[in-house]
Every structure is written in structure tokens, then in C-alpha cells.
Amino acid sequence: MSEAPAIAVRGLTKRFGQRTVVDGVDLTVMPGRICGFLGPNGSGKTTTLRMICGLLIPDAGEGEVLGLDLATKRRAIKHQIGYMTQKFGLFSDLSIAENLEFIARVYRLDQRRERVAATLDKLGLASRADQLAGKLSGGWKQRLALAAAVMHEPKILLLDEPTAGVDPQARREFWDQIHALAAEGMTVLVSTHYMDEAERCHEIAYIAYGVMLARGTIGEVIAASGLHALQGEGPGADRLAAEIEQRPGVAMAAPFGTSLHVCGLDPAALQKAVEPWTDRIAFTPAEPSLEDVFIHLMRGATDNSVEAR
Ligand SMILES: Nc1ncnc2c1ncn2[C@@H]1O[C@H](COP(=O)(O)OP(=O)(O)OP(=O)(O)O)[C@@H](O)[C@H]1O
């Protein structure tokens, strides 16, 4: 028998007033996979995460989380999920260890002392156990928040922009920990705006203004976009973006350092669009980036942030 998905939701919909902020979202994540959840600000990522973990009741849609019915088993689902919110929600005037002890009590965990010690060790926090949470740098705060989210050994971890404002080294360490947790079987759904983080996910889902526009591995999402790209090198190539973007057949153009990156759906039209500059700029085929695809999808989506009438 094939393995059941950890998360399988269909047609998930949430309305606030007249606005549909999540509109018929389907999402399946298999156990032990890391799924990146991307999309412009206000597109419904947090709202979707909150529906999946049972904190928010969908207006429509259905699904199973860890095989439990989302409509009737919200309490049981909540207990098996770790949720790290965007805001640091721990006590600044308690130490790292005290914060974890508090969480252990809230979850009524057994063998609290052992669990706190094991969590401190596992997430590399032991050397700072007595430090006040409020005095930690952004990276250490995130590490503590992650420890608090996984101490009850959830099967699914939902992370809402976990590394916003954290430096690259701390982000890398954070992602190494996420991969270690996934390797042990934890399923991770993580919202992010960072392309390098998207690239560290096994698969990605892209939502714009409530509508799921792309899903799959990075290769699948790029291939499904139908985009083609050219890289232009030569004097002043990086200054041509605005002009080239106006040409027919060009979906977008952007400077990448001293070179120019141009994308479009039709390779022949793209080649024709850059022809006026080929005497001084050498254009060669390039791989469209994930960022190209997301910007292209976002431009084609309808912004629903204005209240419907
Ligand atoms: N409780 C609420 N009442 C009314 N509107 C809400 C509520 N919660 C969220 N919204 C609106 O729903 C939309 C989607 O918000 P959500 O936080 O899910 O987006 P997001 O994709 O997580 O955004 P970001 O990337 O900025 O975190 C936004 O326009 C937001 O203002």
C-alpha cells in the first residue's frame, strides 16, 4: 500500500468579510518532505497554515492532516503539529531553559526535565540554556522558537517566515536543523520570501492573492511556467532592462550584476526582441530562475487586496 500524505487538503477557502483571502487551495505534502510556501505579501499563506493546524475554521474545503479529518478532528490535529509563528512569542525575561520548561508544562509533557535537556542538546542551545531570551540575537531567538515548536515531538512542523531578518549564517544553520528534523520523518511546511530558502525545499507551492498558481519540485515549477531566458553580456547590458522590457515577446528583463537577464514565453520572439542590441551584447540561452517564474506568476495574478464590492 502506498504511503498516506501528511497533509492533504482540497478546496480550502477562507473569507474575511467580503474578501476571499484563500480561494480553493489544494495542497498535498508527503511525510518527511519539506514544502516551501511562497507568494506575495497578503496572499493567504499564514491563513492557510492556520487552517491546516486547526486554529482557523475554513469556510469551504476539506482534507486530512495526518489522516485526521480537518473538519472534525481539529483538537487532535493541533496536538501533533508544531507551529512557529512570525512573531517571537516567548518570554523575554525567562531564560532559554525556563521558556522550554514553561512550554513543557503547557503541553503537559511527561519527563519534563529530560525533554528540556534533550531539546536543548538537539537544537544546540545547551551552552546558552541560562541566557535570557530577550537578550538573544535574532538567529538564537529563532532557534529557541524552533525548539519550543518541536519539543512535544510533533509529526508536522508549520513555519511562518521563520528566518525573516536573520543573518545568512544563522539562516543556514536553521535550515540544516530543518533538514535534520525532516530526515527523522517530520513533515515541514514553511512560508518564506527568500529564494535561496525555496531552493532548499523538496518541493514548493506558490500562492498569489489566495489562489494556488504553481506546485511541484523547483524543476517542475520552472518547466511548467513555459518561460525561456537569455543572458546578455556586453558593455552597458545591465542598463538595458527598462527598454528591452517594453519589447513584444519580453515578459521581463532585469540586470544581474553587469549582465542582463531577459525572459519570455516564446523563444523566437525573445530572440527577435533583443536583435537591435546583438551587435554589442552577446545573448546566450539561460535557465529561467525561480524568481523569474514567481514574478511572472505574480504579474499575471489579480490582486484581491482591495475590498470586493
Ligand atoms: N483575521 C483577519 N481579519 C481580516 N482580514 C485578515 C485576517 N487575517 C488575515 N487577513 C487578511 O487576509 C489576507 C491574507 O493574509 P495572510 O496573513 O494569510 O497573508 P500572507 O501570505 O501570510 O502574507 P505575508 O507574506 O505578508 O505574511 C491579508 O490581506 C490580510 O490582511
List keywords for this structure.
2 domains, 27% strand, ABC_transporter-like_CS, alpha/beta, ABC_transporter-like_ATP-bd, Alpha-Beta Plaits, Rossmann fold, four-stranded antiparallel β-sheet, binds adenosine-5'-triphosphate, six-stranded mixed β-sheet, AAA+_ATPase, ABC transporter ATP-binding protein, 14 strands, 309 residues
Write the layout of secondary structure elements.
Elements: E1 7-16, E2 19-29, E3 34-38, H1 45-52, E4 60-65, E5 68-69, H2 74-79, E6 81-84, H3 96-106, H4 112-122, H5 138-150, E7 156-160, H6 168-183, E8 187-191, H7 195-198, E9 203-208, E10 211-216, H8 218-225, E11 228-233, H9 241-245, E12 252-256, E13 259-264, H10 267-274, E14 282-286, H11 290-300
Parallel strand pairs: 3-8, 3-9, 6-7, 7-8
Antiparallel strand pairs: 1-2, 1-4, 4-5, 9-10, 11-13, 11-14, 12-13
Helix pairs in contact: 3-4, 8-11
The structure holds adenosine-5'-triphosphate.
The CATH class of the largest domain: Alpha Beta
Order of helix and strand elements from N to C terminus: EEEHEEHEHHHEHEHEEHEHEEHEH
What is the 3D form? globular
CATH-defined architecture of the largest domain: 3-Layer(aba) Sandwich
End-to-end span in angstroms? Answer: 49 Å
Secondary structure: number of strands? 14
If strands are numbered along the chain, what order do they take across the biggest sheet?
Answer: 6-7-8-3-9-10
- Share of helical residues: 25-40%
Number of helices: 11
- Report strand %: 25-35%
CATH topological fold name of the largest domain: Rossmann fold
Average residue pLDDT: 93
User: How large, in whole angstroms, is the Cα Rg?
Assistant: 22 Å
Protein name: ABC transporter ATP-binding protein
Domain ABC transporter: 7-234
Keywords: ATP-binding, Nucleotide-binding
Pfam family, one: ABC_tran
